[in-house]
Amino acid sequence: MKFVEILRTYNAMDIAIIKSLLDGENIEYRFLGENFNMLEPMVQPARLNVWHDQVDEARELLSGFKGSFMAVSMPDED
Questions:
Q1: Which domains does the chain have, with CATH numbers?
Q2: What is the pTM of this model?
Q3: What's the order of all strands across the beta sheet hosting 46-51?
């Protein structure tokens, strides 16, 4: 399976909102480090990975998303 990282965040609320948006569009994703982030906040961000065929669709969907709490970042496109 090939997933591509498209976003990082430290905020659990951001994660919940992003999941809701992606679920609504049937975009296949996974958050890496999500549970660790809740145990040790601000140590390591949760990283959003999207199925490679849906990266453009996910980026477009999240393009207007502004994280509610510091440090939401989208890695540069390859």
A1: 3-62 (3.30.70.790)
A2: 0.76
A3: 3-9, 46-51, 29-32
